[in-house]
Design goal:
Helix content is 46%, strand content 11%. The protein has helices at 21-41, 46-62, 72-75, 82-131, 169-178, 206-221, 249-255, 274-278; strands at residues 138-143, 146-152, 187-192, 232-236, 257-262. β3 (187-192), α6 and β4 form a beta-alpha-beta unit.
């Protein structure tokens, strides 16, 4: 009889290689940490951002798992150590905002009071103009940048000259009296011309003529011993800031002028005049 071969059952023990789980878990941990950092960086809470940054650093330096660290949501629960710090920060922000609002309110009040004072100065200058019949040569205008007194150049200078007419020197002295303020104010005197080219030996351009007219008028004004020259300045724009077209005789006459700008002590933005601060 043929031998029967015994069938041996070979039990093959299959061992599954799970070594891939370690880098996979590390990758998931890093991804989770990255998204948490991105979320924390998008928040305006600086304290939470610092906390998450610390957690992220400890993950890489110590090999800890992200789940080993308490979540920020849990740290914000009542009774935690972070909540008092957040409350203190919010209280500080509220206090700073209140202080800023108080400062802004004070500045607006000061600006309103300063505007009323400029209106009184304008009324005094207008009264002087009316009493002396100078309405054709003088004009005032209250602007955001200050009180503007405009003087036609024909009232002060001969054509092509920067010397103040002798007949109007007394008038310039009286203008100086109107510029006495307590406390002082910054005053800017500016010269302007028309666009007709200057042609004489004293000036090579309208720019030079306008500057010297402003300077010479300012010299007469600050001759007043009651005025401090440190509060006065002069400049010239030549023909480059016309107030009327230079196409007619009347237009060119309006553009030839000297402007006296009396500056406010407080601007509409609530910022103190730089000159006022430097002289306090």
């Amino acid at each position: 009889m043929p031998r029967r071969r015994k069938k041996h059952k070979h039990k093959t023990e299959e061992h599954v290689d799970e070594s891939w789980l370690l880098p996979y878990a590390d990758l998931l941990t890093l991804l989770l940490a990255m998204f948490i950092v991105l979320f924390a960086s998008s928040s305006v809470n600086d304290f939470k951002f610092q906390q998450m940054s610390q957690v992220f650093n400890e993950i890489f330096s110590g090999g800890e798992q992200i789940l080993d660290f308490p979540g920020l949501i849990e740290q914000d629960k009542p009774g935690s150590q972070i909540t008092p710090l957040i409350n203190e920060k919010e209280a500080e922000e509220t206090r700073v905002m209140q202080e800023l609002m108080e400062v802004q309110k004070a500045r607006k009040t000061a600006a309103a009071a300063d505007l009323e004072e400029l209106k009184k100065i304008q009324s005094a200058i207008n009264l002087y103009i009316a009493d002396n019949g100078l309405s054709a040569q003088f004009a005032t205008e209250l602007r955001d940048e200050g009180l503007l007194l405009t003087i036609r150049d024909s009232a002060l200078f001969d054509s092509g000259s920067a010397s103040v007419k002798e007949s109007y020197r007394e008038m310039a002295d009286e203008v100086a009296q109107l510029l006495k303020f307590d406390p002082p104010r910054s005053v800017v005197i500016t010269g302007h011309t028309d666009d007709v080219p200057i042609s004489n030996s004293n000036f090579s351009s309208n720019w030079e003529l306008s500057v010297m007219r402003a300077v010479n008028f300012m010299k007469i004004v600050i001759d007043n011993p009651d005025l401090d020259p440190r509060w006065f300045s002069a400049k010239g724009f030549g023909e480059y800031q016309p107030i009327s077209p230079n196409e007619s005789v009347q237009g060119r006459a309006k553009n030839r002028r000297v402007e006296v700008m009396i500056l406010p002590r407080v601007t509409s933005e609530g910022v103190l005049d730089a000159s006022a601060e430097s002289h306090e």
